[in-house]
Amino acid sequence: MKVTVEADGGSRGNPGPAGYGAVVFSEGGDVLAERAESIGIATNNVAEYQGLIAGLSAARELAATEVAVRMDSKLVVEQMSGNWQIKNAALKPLAAAAHEVAASFDAVTYTWIPRAENAHADRLANEAMDGKPSRSEQPAPMDTTAPARWTGATGTPTRFLLLRHGQTELSGERRYSGRGDVALTDVGQRQAKAAAARLAHMDFAAVVSSPLTRARQTAEAIGRPVAVHEGLVEADFGAWERLTFAEAAARDPELHRRWLGDPGVAPPDGESFDSVLTRVRETRDELVQRYAGETIVVVSHVTPIKSLLRLGLDVGPSLLFRLHLDLASLSVVEWYPDGNASVRLVNDTAHLSV
């Protein structure tokens, strides 16, 4: 995901009461996150660097892969670009911190812009210097100001980083793979490692996985303790297990047709999508209660992940057939204490192309 970070900082007195502001924009120009904070007595340049660090950190929490930084501080832009030396001892650790966050992304560019083009970040910085409430002290690891503003959601959300398992022999052949316990292929192992490298740049409290081997192997690649939850298991495709779409349709033509149009219909000796939704909802509720206000990695399968996204979007069963989820893809959904939800990312595979 490509984003633009605009950041600013200021000091009334230089040094004097200082603050910074930062905003993250999508490629389409939508505001994805805002950060602002008063930092006490500091210089303009220190505040500018603090704004940059906050903006890059917000982009990282949004799982961005490429960042275009735009600032009206010529000094920060040229120093971060490597064109100017950093002689001020107070700025060296700030520049090092900014470079450390920047290393999380596939690419970062720095562009100087006139102050008039940096109005959004400038406004946030001035609000911080005026002593207005900080926008960087929210306990949630992803900034939630923007969605909360237009959805009415309140409270600190519980954030699910939804990771589909890597490739297996069955998924590689596009066969129904439900409760059959198959392992990852070599490709799947590489996909799991790539996903783990992506998640290494994110803060999370726990890793929760389906009990099936392909999911556990993907989860274990993350390098953190893995909690197993039966509710995250894939749908049971019954007699269609290991069959291709065409083979299942040929075996049970009428039932297969009905199954595609009615989530209450189950495969022979299998599980309906309605049943999956019920257990996934119960699992969601349990995990939200257990990890309230925290971020967790949830490693599962196509149907449970689609069901979680369906719950987050509050939409009907057509999503199951209209939404594509790649192997080892990452999606993000947040659950608020007041019942609201925000789907922040769907089917991101940027880490697989590195």
Plain-language structure description:
- The chain is of the alpha/beta class.
- The chain has two domains: 2-137, Nucleotidyltransferase, domain 5, CATH 3.30.420.10; 158-353, 3-Layer(aba) Sandwich (Rossmann fold), CATH 3.40.50.
- The chain contains 13 helices and eleven strands.
- Strands 8-7-9-6-10-11 form a six-stranded mixed beta sheet, sandwiched between helices. A five-stranded mixed beta sheet has the order 3-2-1-4-5.
- A hairpin with a 5-residue loop joins β2 and β3 (31-42).
- α1 runs parallel beside α3 (92-102) and α11 (273-290) packs across α12 (302-313).
- The longest helix is centred in the first third of the chain and has 18 residues, at 44-61.
- The radius of gyration is 23 Å and the shape is elongated.
- The two termini are 13 Å apart.
- The model is unreliable at 136-146 (pLDDT under 50).
